[in-house]
Structure formats: C-alpha cells, structure tokens
Amino acid sequence: MKAKETTLRLEHSGGHTSAILMEPGDDATSIVILGHGFLSNKDSRTNLRLTELLTSKGLSTLRFDWIGMGDSGGRFAEITLSACCTQLNYLINDMKNRGYRDIGLIGSSFGGLVAILVAADHPELFALGLKCPVPDFPEMLECEFGQQGIEEWKRTNTIPNVTGGSEPIALDFAFHEDCCQYNAYEQAAKISTPCVIVHGEQDELVPIHQIHRLVESLPGEKNLRLLPEANHHFGRPEDFRVMSLALTEWIVTHSPSSQSTAKVPS
C-alpha cells in the first residue's frame, strides 16, 4: 500500500512551518519527525530516504523546513537556535494533537543539535536518532571560519557561502550569540530516550571530540555508529546506505507499535 502524502502549513507563534506528512495507513500510531541540516530543506536526500524506509515499516513521518529555510516562513538571516527549538516543540505537540501516541525524532547536523535540546524536555519520545549532530555549533563555526571570519561575521552580519556560491550569506550575528546560550552536553545528560548517533570519522565539519563527549553525556540506552570513511554528507553510496539503515533500525526496534527486532532490508 502506497503511503499517503499530505502537505501541511502549520501556523505558530514563529510564523508558519511547511511540512509533509507521510502516512502508511489510517491506523498508524507512531510517527517520526525528521529535522534537516543547516541551509538544507525538508526534501534532503537523507529525509527522503528515511521517509521511504520508515513508512515501509509502518511508521508515519513528518519532514519539515526550519524557520527561514525551504518553504517555511521567516527570513534565514533572522533565525535563531531558540526559535528552532520553539518550532520543534510546537511540531511535537501538533502531532500529539493529531492522535499520534508514539513520537520519535531524527535530526541531521544542525537539526541534531535542535533535537538534543528539545529531546531533553520530552522523555515521552520513544527513540532519538542523530546523524552527524553538532553539539557545539559555535565551536564548529569558529573552526570553519576562523577568528577573523567570526569577527567579519560580527561586523557584516554575513557568513561565507558554505553552499559553494560566491556571494556571502546574510545571517545576523545574533544567531551565534543565541547559540552560545545553550549547552547541549548538559541537555544531553537529561535525555532518557534511547539514542543512536551515526557519524563519519572523516567528517570535515563536526570535530570528533564533540561526538565522544556527547556520547559520554547521554545517561540512557545509546549506540554510537562510527563510519571510518564517511564525511559530513555521507557522500559515498555505501556510507549513505549504512547511515540510513542504522537510523531506521534503531527507530523501528524501539517503536512501541512495531516491537520489531527484524533487520531493515538493504
């Protein structure tokens, strides 16, 4: 049976969120919310593959655009981590109101950071998946841009074009200042939800010491999958396959509606 796709425009205090709800059947009671990375969108390669895998196992998915990205409201230049946390909290509550009893969460990169911060306040989540998360976003940006680049950002409210373009990207320095107010390691220490982290040892953006510290901070059931050859984007087909299946298996295994221990087919 083909999954039913519904395009949603969800109004909230931060504006509106553009999202796509995929339901494998009318009786689905579990849903997984998918948070994409920085300067990406809800139809990222990872989100689309996870949607395909999860719905084939009987779980609904909600993929969405962060504020100021994709088709959601707001200007990218004005986003803050705080606003994204508020947005994700709203989405979790909205899915509860739609009748979903069991909610899981997967976050990629920047989306992984937001997922950590929000999951700490939602012990009811049945599973958490993190793909190359960035627990310390300011440190990552400082490593990427250098101190001179940070000072330039503060002066111009623009960052270098990390998408490959030639023009700088407008982003208020308030984003950096807001990120500095959060300690994801402290929040991770509050997470009781079973958590899997999939990370590439060749990740060129997220320092590996951040991942090890994150794992040490998590007090509950956890699993770290390190892929020796994978970069931040899991560009090699085999790395992408392993990453997608690892996240899916963790979610399916911990879903109360499936209670499945079967391996997800490759």
CATH superfamily: Alpha/Beta hydrolase fold, catalytic domain
Q: Which strands sit side by side, in order, in the main sheet?
A: 1-2-4-3-5-6-9-10
Could you say how many structural domains there are in total? 1
Specify the overall morphology.
globular
Distance between the termini: 20 Å
Alpha-beta content class: alpha/beta
Helix content: 25-40%
Give the radius of gyration.
18 Å
What is the CATH-assigned architecture?
3-Layer(aba) Sandwich
Count of alpha and pi helical runs? 8
Keywords: Hydrolase
GO molecular function, one term: hydrolase activity
Pfam family, one: Hydrolase_4
InterPro entries: AB_hydrolase_fold, ABHD10_acyl-thioesterase, Hydrolase_4
Q: Could you explain the architecture of this structure?
A:
- By secondary structure, this protein is of the alpha/beta class.
- It is 37% helix and 21% strand.
- Helix 1 crosses helix 8 and helix 2 (81-97) crosses helix 3 (110-119).
- Mean pLDDT is 93; it is low at 260-265.
- One of its GO terms (molecular function) is hydrolase activity.
- Keywords: Hydrolase.
- InterPro entries: AB_hydrolase_fold, ABHD10_acyl-thioesterase, Hydrolase_4.
